Every structure is written in structure tokens, then in C-alpha cells.
Amino acid sequence: MADKSIEDRGMSIFLDVFRRADKDDDGFISWEEFIAFFADGVMGKEELRVLFNEIDTHNTGNIDTGELCSYFASHLGDFQQIYGTLEDLSAKVTNVLFSTSQSYEGADRKEKFVTRFLMRELQNQLSALQQPLEAASEELDLQARRERADIQPVDVEAMKKTGSTIPGRIVRRAKRQVSSQSTNSEAVENIVDGYGNQVLTLQVDRLENLIDKLESKVNFDNFVDEEVVSEPDCLMLMLQRNFEVKAEELDNFKSSLKLYVESIQGVGGCRNVSVRSFRDSNKLTVYEIWTSEADKKRSEESAASCTFMTDIASQLATPETGSSMTVPGSWWSQ
């Protein structure tokens, strides 16, 4: 895939924002979904309605991915470089996690120690960025509330009592306030807003989980590695399928892919399937996780899979490519 243009850097994060805000997965963000996701405990309902209408440039009463990305793209400013860096970080962390999962088991004890140390230190360095980000975010919210004390923000406690959806960012703030009664809020320069902070937190959590798994393979009492059961039925199959579609067939391909994904999600042995597409690109990647290779082979013989392969044969610009690997089943269940 060609490198992203400068204008596109950092925008994939907002595709993820859209996915999380679109709770019913209908491809649009309604007013109810918008206020549930974007309310931050500072903005009033009327202010959010004005913002919603400003983003909804098509005046449909809903926000699509293009409208959301276009709005934030025009307001990124200095944040664009940071969000682009977060995209690169996400890709590099994913590569490290995969390569480590493949090489760690066959390494000697010294190499395993070095791997765990490097992973833990990387986690520490990333975690060190969180405190100033959280402090700056809190300070910005506090300043905004002081500027317009007449604005009535979302009442978190009232929403809890009525059983209403509680905006995600408000919940994150409440959790931080519970864990730390006082926050050092100094300089508010060169910071990332809550969404960048959430991406960073996600990567730190992924690193922490991997470190836990790596360390659990070592018996520190007897200094011998834990035995790993290696029967085939203890390993899960992970697939990455890459598709490059003809521009004029992109809509037809997406329709075929949607039917395929819906069909295999209900098939025994399929643990997860997800699709990743890129803005202004005809390339898509499908990730599938199967309980066993036998389950995947049975799926390939199903009517839905055969129909999918037949339908896309004329829609692809180049033949499908992909890769696969097996991982311990316990990694998925833990």
C-alpha cells in the first residue's frame, strides 16, 4: 500500500472513533449516539446540537464517516502530527506483539529475560506520557467550565440513576478522579486530547497483557520454563486476507464481503472476524480467528464461502494474498 498523504495522516483514528460512536452499526451516527459519545461533562446540550448540525453538512440528521473525518481534519492543526505518530505507533506495537509471540517460546533464558525487560520498559515509557496528558485534559475542561458557568453540562449522577447511557469520556474522567483525588495540572502545551490518550492507553494495556503472558511462562520458584502443551487442538489459527478491488466493483465487493462475514460469524469454530479498510483506497484486509485449521477448512467448503469466492473473482484487481499463524488457545481465552 502506498504511503498516506500528509492530509490523511492521523485520520484512521477518527474512523475508530466513528465505529465506537455508531453503537447500532448502521453506518451513521444519530443525534442520540452523538450526544452519548461526545458529551464531555462540559458542553451543554444546546451547544452539542449546534456542533452536530455543523458536522452534518449533508443535512440528513445523521453523521457519516466522511462528514466526521472532514470536520476533524479541518481542526487538527498541530495535533495532526501527533495523531499520525499514534497511527505509526499502533502499527509498530502490533508488529512487535506478533513477532514476540512467534520468537519468545524458542528463545533461551537470557533472551527471554531481555525481551521481558524491553517490553516492560517500553510500557513504562508509554505510561509516563499518560499523567501529563490527563492533567492537561482536566485543566482544559476546568477552564472551559469557568468560562461559561451558566452552561449546564451533562449530569453524570442523574444519568446513572435513570439508567441512561453515560458518555464514555465522562466515565473515564470519573475513574481518574476516583483513583487520584488530586492531579498535578501544570503546563497545557503540546498535548493530545482524550482520544489520543485513549489510543495510548490501549497500546499500554496491550503491552501489559503481553508482558503478563510472557512472565507466566516462567516458573520463578524453580527457575524452569513452564511446559507448554502443543497438541494441535490447543492452537488457534489466525488469518490475514488481503484484497485489492477494482474501483468500479468496490461497492459490489463490500456487499459480497458483508454477506460472507455475517455467514461465518455464525459458523462453529469461528471465534472472530473483522474487516479493515482504508480511506481513499480500494484495499481491504479481513482478519479471521478460528478454533482450529480443520474448522477453517470446513468453512471453506460451505455454500457461503464458495459463493463469496465466486462473486469476488471478477471484482478483484489482483489475486487475494494473505498469511496465517497459530497461537496458543489460552492466549485468546485469558
Walk me through what this model shows.
This protein has 334 residues and is an alpha+beta fold. It has 13 helices and six strands. It has helices at residues 12-21, 31-38, 45-55, 65-73, 79-103, 109-147, 156-162, 168-179, 194-216, 250-264, 293-300, 303-312, 329-333, and strands spanning 218-219, 224-225, 235-245, 270-277, 283-290, 316-328. A four-stranded antiparallel β-sheet has the order 4-5-3-6. A two-stranded antiparallel ribbon has the order 1-2. The longest helix is centred in the middle third of the chain and has 39 residues, at 109-147. The protein is globular.
Q: Tell me the span between the first and last alpha carbons.
A: 34 Å
SSE string, helices as H and strands as E:
HHHHHHHHHEEEHEEHHEH
Q: What's the shape? A: globular
The averaged pLDDT comes out at 76
- What would you call the structural class? alpha+beta
* Sequence stretches where pLDDT stays below 50 over 5 or more residues: 159-196
- Rg is 23 Å
Spatial strand sequence of the major β-sheet: 4-5-3-6
Structure at a glance:
By secondary structure, the chain is α+β, with helices and mostly antiparallel strands. It contains 13 helices and six strands. β4 and β5 form a beta hairpin.
List the helices and strands and how they pair.
Blueprint: H1 12-21, H2 31-38, H3 45-55, H4 65-73, H5 79-103, H6 109-147, H7 156-162, H8 168-179, H9 194-216, E1 218-219, E2 224-225, E3 235-245, H10 250-264, E4 270-277, E5 283-290, H11 293-300, H12 303-312, E6 316-328, H13 329-333
Antiparallel strand pairs: 1-2, 3-5, 3-6, 4-5
Helix pairs in contact: 2-3, 5-9, 6-9, 10-12
